[in-house]
Write a structure and sequence with these properties.
Phosphonate ABC transporter substrate-binding protein, disordered N terminus, D-Maltodextrin-Binding Protein, domain 2, 299 residues, single chain, alpha/beta
Length: 299
């Protein structure tokens, strides 16, 4: 099994129709005299939802840095990681699992990471339809299941580890696995009965419980993973240290700025911090374990 491709996975075209309704992404800013900052969002949200979620934050960042923000999106984490690796993006909002893989290839620096609900950590949730009789992951053996992205920790690496702990490789444990490429679409797939279960970013499920309670009411959580380092904001290789320091200063100061605080509240972020150097080592250990079991995890 390779997480660099999806050759044996089937994808349902119905997932797009079942996705959470969101406003269209904002139009790209017109070029002006300010220097450009290229930002890639390898978001746990779908591209349209992610653009809406990050819009005010990116506008604020551009104003504070006096830079023109160019928002970049890609359909998969692998494409986003390649863009950062090859110098096509200056900074990225990326998944924790993707960060662990990216730092193996190029020197990337964590600029900051959000603290949400009092923690700079997150968990994978295993969810099923609200009326499902499943009470544990074992009950989903032989059922259909939704992963988010091949490089997602919460939506691919963790459920794969759990399948192995229960005695089967991921492709044997479930009868069918679909890639949705975002946590909100996986939640919708479960809510509308397109799959029997899914593994999703717990923060997305928690956020949608307030933003879209009707969707969340159609699902329930049957398992939560241990805590792991929350998805970070990173600077790509070769970035100017002064620029990185300036970006970090903006993020770390948002809670003390009235305008910044309003944006953070809207995103349900307490504040941004700089995590310790070993903050993502627990995720790296899971990746090593999966590789030891024969899974090819790369991009």
């Amino acid at each position: 099994m390779s997480y660099g491709s999806s050759f044996f996975f089937q994808r349902s075209v119905l997932l797009e129709a079942a996705a959470v309704d969101v406003a269209p992404p904002p139009a790209a800013p017109k070029a002006d005299g300010r220097p450009e900052l290229r930002v890639i969002i390898a978001s746990r949200y779908s591209p349209s939802a992610g653009a809406v979620y990050y819009n005010d934050l990116l506008k604020y960042l551009g104003e504070r840095l006096e830079r023109r923000i160019t928002l970049l999106t890609r359909s998969s984490y692998a494409e986003a990681m390649k863009l950062i690796e090859e110098g096509g993006a200056d900074i990225g909002f990326i998944c924790s699992g993707s960060y662990v893989l990216l730092r193996e290839k190029v020197p990337v620096e964590v600029i900051a990471a959000p603290e949400m609900y009092g923690r700079a950590e997150y968990r994978s949730y295993i969810i099923v339809p609200a009326d499902s009789s499943a009470a544990s992951l074992e009950d989903l053996r032989g059922k259909s299941f939704a992963f988010t992205d091949p490089l997602s920790f919460s939506g691919a690496f963790y459920p794969s580890q759990r399948a192995l702990q229960l005695g089967d490789s991921p492709e044997k444990f479930w009868s069918k696995v679909l890639y949705t490429h975002s946590a909100d679409k996986s939640i919708s797939a479960v809510a509308y009965g397109l799959v029997d279960g899914a593994a999703v970013d717990g923060l997305i499920w928690d956020n949608l419980s307030a933003a879209n309670p009707d969707i969340i009411a159609r699902t329930k959580v049957i398992e939560r993973s241990p805590w792991f380092g929350i998805p970070p904001i990173v600077a790509g290789p070769g970035q100017d240290p002064a620029l990185v320091a300036g970006i970090r200063k903006v993020f770390l100061g948002m809670r003390d700025d009235p305008q910044g605080a309003v944006i953070l509240d809207g995103m349900r972020i307490d504040r941004f911090n700089v995590p310790p150097a070993d903050w993502y080592d627990g995720l790296a250990s899971v990746v090593s374990l999966l590789r030891d079991k024969g899974l090819k995890i790369t991009f």
